[in-house]
Amino acid sequence: MIRLRSLLISWEALLVILLLISIVIGSVLSPYFFSGFNFDELTSNIMEIAIMALPMTLIIIAGEIDLSVASVLGLASVVLGFLWENQHILWLAIGVALLVGLVAGLLNGLLVTKLTLPSLVVTIGTLALFRGLAYVVLGDQAVSDFPTSFTNLGFGTIPGTEIPWSSLIFAILVVIFVVVLHFSRLGRQLYAIGNNKEAARFSGINVSQMKLILFIVSGVIAALAGVIFTARLSSARPDNALGFELTVVTVVLLGGINIFGGRGSLLGVVLAIFIVAILQNALSLVNISGDIQSVAIGLLLILSVLGPNIARRIQVAIARRRLAAG
C-alpha cells in the first residue's frame, strides 16, 4: 500500500497523467490528430531533440550541462553538406560529421575537466563557437541535392508501418542508455557524482574521466542528430536546429531530472519527450505561430524546474507524517 501510494505521487505518474491529457487535448483540437500521417509527423519532428536529450540526461545527472548540442548538430550538418557538395562519398561525409561531433564534445569535456571551468559557461561559449564555424564552412548557402536513399533516413518509414526510421534509431538508443544508467555500475557512479562529486572521488571514481566521456558521447549523439536532421529536411544549413538546446533542456528537466544532479530517470525523460511533441503538434494543427509555441516551451521549462521539487517536497512531507504517526 505504501509503495503504491509513493508510485501514485511520483513525478513519473504525474507525467503519465499529463501525457494522457495532452493526447485528449490534441484529439479535441484537430480531427487529424490520430491520423497515421500526423503520427509520422509528430514523431519525426521531435526525434532529433529526443536523441540529444538522452546524453543530456546523463550529463545533468552528473551535475553538468551541455548547451552546445544544437550548435554541434548544425556544424555536423554543414560539414556533411559541404563534403557531399564537393563530390565526396556520402558515407564518408557522414563519418566525418560524426567525427566533428566527437571533437566538439572532446573540446567541451577538456575545458570542463582539465581547466575545471563551469560547464554552463563553457558550453555557452562553444554554442557560439560551433555555430560560427558552421557559417564559416558554408556561409549563407544551403546544400539540398541529397540522394533519396539518404533522405529516407529522415522522413522515410519502416516498410508496412507509419514508424519513421529515426524513431527506430531513438528506440535503440533508449535501450542502450537505460541499461547504462539504471542497470550498470557506470550509472550508479553517475548518480554518485551528481550527489557529491568529492565523495565520489574519494570512493575511487574517476570523476574527470567520466565527465569527459559524457561530453564526448553528447557530441557524437548531437552529430548523429545532425545527420538525421539533414536527411529529414533534405537540407544542410548553418542555422539548422537553431534554438533546439532550450527544448532539449526542457524535456530533460520536465522528465524529472534534478538540475543540480543526482536524481531522475530516463522513463520520465521519455514521457516528457512525447508530451512536448504532442503539445507542439497540437498547436501546429490549429495554426498557432512558432512564437506562441516558444512561449509554451518556456512555460514548460519553468514547470520542469518547479514541478519535481514540489512533488519531492510532498513525498518528504508524507514520509515525515508517517514517521510521526508511527
Element layout with pairings:
Layout: H1 2-8, H2 11-29, H3 36-61, H4 69-85, H5 90-113, H6 119-138, H7 148-155, H8 165-182, H9 185-195, H10 197-202, H11 207-233, H12 244-254, H13 266-285, H14 290-325
Helix pairs in contact: 2-13, 3-8, 3-9, 3-11, 3-12, 3-13, 4-5, 4-6, 4-11, 5-6, 5-11, 7-11, 8-9, 12-13, 12-14, 13-14
Number of strands: 0
How helix-rich are the residues, as a percent range? over 70%
- Structural domain count: 1
Given as residue ranges, the uncertain stretches (5+ residues, pLDDT < 50) are 1-8
Mind explaining what this structure looks like?
The protein is an all-alpha fold and 326 residues long. The protein has one domain (13-24, 37-325): ABC transporter involved in vitamin B12 uptake, BtuC (Orthogonal Bundle). The chain has helices spanning 2-8, 11-29, 36-61, 69-85, 90-113, 119-138, 148-155, 165-182, 185-195, 197-202, 207-233, 244-254, 266-285, 290-325. α2 runs parallel beside α13 (266-285), α3 runs antiparallel to α11 (207-233) and α4 runs parallel beside α6.
